[in-house]
Amino acid sequence: MAQGPAEPTAQTNESQVVEQTVLLYAAGKKIYARSIAGHFNNWRWAFVFLTQVLYYITPWLTWTERPAVLFDLEARRFYIFDLILVPQDFIYLTALLLLSAFGLFLFTAVAGRLFCGYACPQTVYTSIFMQVERWIEGDRHVRMRHDKEWSLAKRMPRKLLKWLAWAAIALWTGFTFAGYFTPIRDLGASVIGHGAALGFWQWFWMLFYSFFTMMQAGFMREQVCKYMCPYARFQSAMFDRDTLIVSYDNARGDPRGKRAKHEDYKAAGKGDCIDCGVCVEVCPTGIDIRDGLQYECIGCGLCADACNSIMDKMQYPRGLVRYTSINALDRNYTAAEVKKHFFRPRVLIYSTILLTITVVVLTSLFMRTPLKVNVIRDRGALAREVEGAFIENTYRLQINNTGNNAHVFLIKPVGKDGLENLKALGDIKVDVAGGAVKTAIISVQMPIDQANALTKGSHPIQIQVQSLDQPDLKVSEKAVFFTPR
Q1: Cα–Cα distance between 158 and 142 in angstroms, integer?
Q2: pTM (2 decimals)?
Q3: Using CA atoms, how far apart are residues 483 and 463, in angstroms rounded to an integer?
């Protein structure tokens, strides 16, 4: 006989189901950074001033009746004061990128994100835009109170004024950026309608750079550092336990707690941190440095300035938040011991590579010959017989004078092993202005009886180009002389 399902011997309790909502993407929280004065803030504004003076002034400088710094993409010339670089000098761009990379590695290994905190364009322009915001709308608590108001009549006039100020700075920044690629005086005359009309790409890059300056420095701000910048993600690969970073001294600061100014807080079991939160309020990325190293930290040191100001008010020693290393905190290093750990293997390796590349580049620039020559054969006729007495080859030369002074160049073919009697006809003397390119066409001949004594085919020769007024300025390029089979 089949049996039915067994009845439960005991009554089971019904389990309570708790619903929980998990957000895959947290809503962004607006950061209202508070202004603070102090040592690191002074350094930050010094770098803002230095970088922007260099950026805005450089395109207006002149050098021998031309812009001192001009990247003329149309003419394929980069003018940097007395230096003129052409596409054949691409190696120097590679060297510049290497110098930038190893410089960044070195500074990061020694003291963390110094570039991010003080010289990165995103940080610099965000600092400028935030200062304009404070001047127009007020400091942190005033802005927070105004943003909670519902009255547009009270909020909008100041915001519109702020946006107009931001737009003016962004437009001037974009105009200056375009001035590195087009002579800025001509660019300015064209913009105000007194010069030739600007081309599409000039308008595009000027407005494009202006738009992104305003968006990234005015509205996106810390989002760029946290989500768009790749450096925030791989910086840990360049850190070690002796890297100086902005750090909170847990051993000294914890347990945190509020207290009266002259309270015996140590007897109450409290640390030096009064848990005021000012270090969080001044942070441009909105992190709490007391939670340890975070990838969002840009190393600006404003939290150290904020903490020091509170320590001064409480009459506690400074340095609860400071630039130090993890090992220094764990092992209680003295200042001398911290400096001693600067010179560790990775720092020495980065320094050696950086110094080597710098010396090689400077030596190469110093020894660089400001003359480039390309020799192109006439492919229509490799060799021909002329007047029954000569064998003739034709060449087209592109003479690139990358110096600032004009020169008259003499073109002369040089051969050996039976090709000593070469003679050049055509444009054997060429006048080339400074920073200009000129094409010369020459015919190289040799007596037919001497050519018949050679093996048939190609023979290596040199085409020498030498300045008549500066004999040490000369270049010899390889070429071949064909004798008919």
Answers
A1: 12
A2: 0.81
A3: 17
Residues in the chain: 485
Question: Does the structure show a pLDDT above 70 at 191?
Answer: yes
- Domains, the chain: 39-234 (no CATH), 237-343 (no CATH), 371-483 (2.60.40.10)
Over residues 325-362, the pLDDT tens digits come to 899 998 888 888 888 888 888 899 999 999 999 999 99
Angle between helices 152-178 and 121-137 (to 10 degrees): 150
- Residue 398 main-chain phi, psi, to 5 deg: -105, 110
Work out the widest C-alpha separation in the chain, in whole angstroms. Answer: 126
Tokens representing residue 142 in the block: 């005033």
Distance CA 207, CA 316 (A): 51
Can you tell me the distance from the alpha carbon of 406 to that of 281, in angstroms, rounded to the nearest whole number?
A: 61
The single-letter code of the amino acid at 195 is: G
* Distances, alpha carbon 132 to alpha carbons 33, 39, 43, 154, 217, in Å: 13, 21, 19, 19, 11
CA distance 186 to 183: 6
Distances (CA, A) of 344 to 102, 115, 242, 339: 16, 21, 9, 10
* Rounded Cα–Cα distance for residues 302 and 117 (Å): 10
